[in-house]
Write a structure and sequence with these properties.
11 helices; 5-stranded mixed sheet; 284 residues; alpha/beta; Cobalt-precorrin-4 Transmethylase, domain 1; 45% helix; Methyltransferase, Cobalt-precorrin-4 Transmethylase, Domain 2
Amino acid sequence: MKPPGHLYIVATPIGNLADISARALEVLKKVDVIAAEDTRQSRKLLNHFGIKTPVIAHHQHNETKSALKLHQRLLNGESVALVSDAGTPLVSDPGATLVKSAHENGIRVIPIPGASAVSSALSVCGLKIRQFHFEGFLPSRSGDRKRRIRQLSELDSALVFFEAPHRIVASLEDLTDALGSAREVCIAREMTKVYESIRVGKLGVITEQVRENTNEIKGEFVIIVGPASRSKREIDKQIDQTLNILMEESSPRKAAEITARIFGVRRNLLYQRTLELQTEAEKS
């Protein structure tokens, strides 16, 4: 019986095609098939390097069905390379189903490291980061996004996000409202490409700069928000404690109004927080 093939997880360039590794090119040439998130995007890379390996689609809409077919090919002794649109696969990309089934059935899974938008942005942000939380894309709906940011605000680590151009301003505004305008941030846009730009500064200032420079709201973004200072976390806890105490004796709106006067925070933000605290209390 023929032994199973190998599943290679191959990182590809996030923009500049010269960033691909010699090992990645070797693997893409020798495997039996390449499973690509976007076959059109991957063929640009393959054509550039003269690689003729067959390519099939493996994306979020056909992942389950495609994984079954690829799994059978692996069991039959074929080797498969999995690639995403750009960067390292399975970082906010499909592929976990295939990798999990390979591990469960004794098929060797081999990483071929290379470009990553996350590590690239972290390397140039200049922020003192000992640990970080990678969130990927925030929810597209404003209310859901604000609630998620509020949850993340309790973490001690830096926060790393991906964001699309049509939501970048709204997401930065929500981050500023929830985390404070003084928080350090790095916005990396179109990394390794012709119009690459890196902005570093205070969250409030950077948000205003992005809002005013509409010509630069293009391409893919990585947002890195530096960790909160201990004093900021303590103030957030004090605000929640104050809101909870005041809501025992008054309405959420009145509690938000008084707390806003005490801490100098926008009243509408604190009113939203009172509703969140009420929901949390009901669930507990």
